[in-house]
Design brief:
Rossmann fold, two-stranded parallel ribbon, 10 helices, 12 strands, 42% helix, globular, binds guanosine-5'-diphosphate-beta-L-fucopyranose
């Protein structure tokens, strides 16, 4: 990838896409091609083909997806499966058809079987049943990995796939119904502090473990791998450490300055008990995350306070 290469970041307004754009700009890449949904609807194959025919991007980061937390995933299974399949089919095919040099597809750690051994090695894919709360999203992401592998095998197209762990950072979705746990906790503790409420209720039992990676670290891995990795094998991207939701809650409450009680509502789903990534392949390539969770939480809370969300 040269500084003058034509680079399309699909999903540049989302958490991941906006971080990739920040990283590319910081490294002096000058020819970024960015389109809003109103300009090019990625669900529409004709619109995607027309866009690729005209712009001919050379490198494509496929960070556009319908995403959400545990409740959104289990409430809208058809939307998560259909929309993600459509976007990735359209973009991967058009990238190949209109001569892109390389495409990078971004997935998620929920592709792994619910009860897979931990930490999750890449070879555990498709070795057991998925977690029911997000199997629809997971099936779409698995199909995306396989589509990249198939285009590489049949057409020789250089498509690589990255599977990030749970991400957070500036630009996240803080809506309590649809967000992931970390932004939800920031908002819940923040509002409780503002309203002088003594109790905050979180979903589930607090015992599931999750791994969190700051989205700027993910973007750094994405740009590094676009430049340095050209294999069929998809790669895990994570921090290599996890903690329980109850431990996360303590950390977030500390950062936000909430001094009351945290309660758990076990009538709400826990999701998968644990999904810690094995990141040995990525480390062997020479990449490691840099932002530790507490520092990342502090800067994300500052971003939240400065944004329209708070
Ligand atoms: O981040 P999250 O929504 O999704 O939830 P997953 C993680 C854990 O946090 C679950 C608990 O055990 C939730 O029960 N939790 C506690 C909460 N309080 C809250 C809250 O107020 N809001 C939310 N959202 N959770 C998603 C998948 O799984 O992870 C996606 O659904 C994707 O497909 C994504 O893979 C990375 O980590 O369970």
């Amino acid at each position: 990838m040269q500084k003058t290469s034509r680079i399309f970041v699909a999903g540049h307004r989302g958490l991941v896409g906006s971080a990739i754009v920040r990283n590319l700009e910081a490294h002096g890449f000058q020819h970024l091609i960015l389109r809003t949904r109103a300009e090019v609807d990625l669900l529409n194959a004709d619109a995607v083909n027309g866009f690729f025919a005209k712009e001919r991007p050379e490198f494509v980061f496929l960070a556009a997806a319908k995403v959400g937390g545990i409740l959104a995933n289990s409430t809208y299974p058809a939307d998560f499966l259909r929309d993600n399949l459509a976007v990735q089919n359209n973009v991967i095919d058009a990238a190949y058809r209109y001569g892109a040099t390389k495409l990078q597809f971004l997935g998620s750690s929920c592709i792994y079987p619910k009860m897979a051994p931990q930490p999750l090695k890449e070879e555990y894919l498709l070795t057991g049943p998925l977690e029911p709360t997000n199997e629809w999203y997971a099936i779409a992401k698995i199909a995306g990995i396989k589509l990249c592998e198939a285009y590489r095998q049949q057409y020789g197209f250089n498509a690589i796939s990255l599977m990030p762990t749970n991400l957070y950072g500036p630009g996240d979705n803080f809506d309590l119904q649809t967000s992931h746990v970390l932004p939800a906790l920031i908002r819940k503790f923040h509002e409780a502090k503002l309203n002088d409420t003594n109790e905050v209720t979180l979903w589930g039992t607090g015992t599931p473990k999750r791994e969190f990676l700051h989205v700027d670290d993910l973007a750094s891995a994405a740009v590094f791998l676009m430049q340095n990795y050209n294999d069929k094998q998809f790669l895990n991207v994570g921090a290599g450490e996890d903690l329980t939701i109850a431990e996360l809650a303590k950390l977030v409450a500390g950062v936000v300055g909430f001094k009351g009680k945290t309660l758990f509502d076990p009538s709400k789903p826990d999701g998968t008990p644990r999904k810690l990534m094995d990141v040995s392949r990525l480390h062997a390539l020479g990449w490691r995350h840099q932002i530790e969770l507490e520092a990342g939480l502090r800067s994300t809370y500052e971003w939240f306070l400065a944004s329209k969300n708070s």
